[in-house]
Amino acid sequence: MENIVNACQGPTAGRRVLSGDIRRSDGDMIPAVVWFSDLRGSTRLSDQMAPDDYLALLNHYLECTAAPVVAEGGEILNFIGDGVLGIFPISEAEGGLAGAARRATRAVEAALAKCAALRADGSLGGAPLEFGIGLASGELMFGI
After folding, report:
1. Is 116 helix (H, G, I), strand (E, B) or coil?
2. Could you read off the pLDDT of 68-93 as tens digits, one per residue?
3. What CATH number has the domain bearing residue 114?
4. Which string of DSSP letters, residue by residue, matches 51-88?
5. Which stretches in the chain have pLDDT values below 70?
């Protein structure tokens, strides 16, 4: 059950759901660094590429973006088509805002490095893989 809840809600919300601390429509204001990334030209690519090729490109993109967020202690909140929404919660135990910003910045650097490695080793087969990443910080409503 824990794996299912964590996959659907993320580990922070998942723990709180399983412990009974939070139910659907509950939420708290939390400070966080927010990550949003978007595959450039996705609609055009989906129209021009064979479905299997586009799906492979999308999987490469998600590996480039979502994996570094998780590796740096962030949480993926949602996949929105070709967008990835994640957070790096801010906690004093992990260095406050500066710590969350460092983790988010390392995730950006890792995402760009993964993309460059895929281009260099030919894994993309010539398919374009370009994405934008935006970071913001502040208080957000976090819940389910």
Report:
1. helix
2. 999 999 999 998 889 999 999 999 99
3. 3.30.70.1230
4. HHHHHHHHHHHHHHHHHHHHHTT-EEEEEETTEEEEEE
5. 1-26, 143-144
Query: Whole-angstrom Cα distance, residue 131 to residue 39?
Result: 4
In a domain, 40, yes or no: yes
Element (H, E) at 119: helix 96-121
- Cross-sheet strand order for the sheet of 131-143: 75-80, 83-89, 27-39, 131-143
Q: Which two tokens stand for residue 86?
A: 């994640």
Please give the model's pTM, rounded to 2 decimal places: 0.82
Could you tell me the residue range of the domain that residue 131 belongs to?
A: 27-143
Nearest Cα residue to 72 out of 35, 28, 103, 96: 103
